[in-house]
Amino acid sequence: MGAYILRRLLLIVPTLLGIMVINFVLVQFVPGGPVEQVIANMQGQGDVFDSFAGSGSDAGQDMTGGGGNEKYLGARGLPPELIEDLERQFGLDKPPLERFLNMMWNYMRFDFGESYFRKIDVTDLVLEKMPVSISLGLWSTVIAYLISIPLGIRKAVQDGSGFDTWTSGVIIVAYAIPAFLFAIMLLVLFAGGSYWQFFPLRGLTSDNWEQLSLFGKIVDYFWHITLPVVASTISAFATLTLLTKNSFLDEIKKHYVMTARAKGLSERRVLYGHVFRNAMLIVIAGFPAVFIGVFFGGSVLIETIFSLDGLGRLGFEAAVGRDYPVMFGTLFLFGLIGLVVNILSDLMYVLVDPRIDFEKREG
């Protein structure tokens, strides 16, 4: 097992390098870099994309007209010294290959630099936003498992019954509803949209958080996190329930279950003493991957709808604002975490069922 883990750890390097190379190259061809972003702000357009949308034929004139800098949209009439100074500030005065190599060397030392526009270290920004995303990912995953495993087991035991039929209908509907649409429905129904105002509309804590007692802080935290967690749980809940049911159905039909029943063991003993461990292998081992999926996958829309300042929203705003240190720094971190979690998932398989040997499988 040690050799297998070592090989997987070594594979992280080329995989992560490939991810960074592809994204770095793509960014070089995407219009609207940080220099254009500053120019757009200087000209009162607020955002470089407003400049692209509103300039039309003027953009072509900027690229060809006299006295301007042909490299950047909207730079016509600006002093060349100003453009050169902006390039130096953002490190764009160096060739792309040199910039990429410098960036990767810094990232290998976990030096992610400073945000272009916030003047804060990327590491500090990530740590600042991390609690929101961890809250969403952790609670959504835990609740999904607490509901899905018992429900999936009961559906497997009562396969084909009325209970199995109507719960399957509910699960299919829940899976079909996009998380962001469900989040909007929750806001409309329970956050003062058009009906009741049981939950707050935005944020992770109340304005008077610091003045609350410890118990009050706990209650306030769960009061704020309820709707976002419910919205992000719905798709994972549906998938895990059906996965649990199918795993149990596959195990129940095997010969060792018939043998256990023939020996006179109770149905509960057969189910939880023999079937459970084998059936739950794929479900339990997938916990890290499910958590990372909820942590990164649906966080952007959920955080935006509920006005939560988390990692998903940070990455989205960095991409829109062309804040390259935040973009590539978070991409590197998320890619590294995702690759490590894949190894942890394999280790979970071995912990749940020691009979699994990845080295023999590879051989």
TrEMBL record:
Source domain of life: Bacteria
Pfam families reported for this sequence: BPD_transp_1
Localization of this protein: Cell inner membrane; Cell membrane
Segments forming domain ABC transmembrane type-1: 130-345
Membrane topology type: Multi-pass membrane protein
One example of a Gene Ontology biological process annotation: transmembrane transport
Single GO cellular component term: plasma membrane
Main subcellular location of this protein, as a coarse class: membrane
InterPro entries: MetI-like, MetI-like_sf
Keyword annotations from UniProtKB, A to Z: Cell inner membrane, Cell membrane, Membrane, Transmembrane, Transmembrane helix, Transport
Stretches that traverse the bilayer: 9-30, 132-153, 165-191, 221-244, 279-306, 326-352
Family: Belongs to the binding-protein-dependent transport system permease family.
Protein name: Microcin C transport system permease protein
Phylogenetic lineage: Bacteria, Pseudomonadati, Pseudomonadota, Alphaproteobacteria, Rhodobacterales
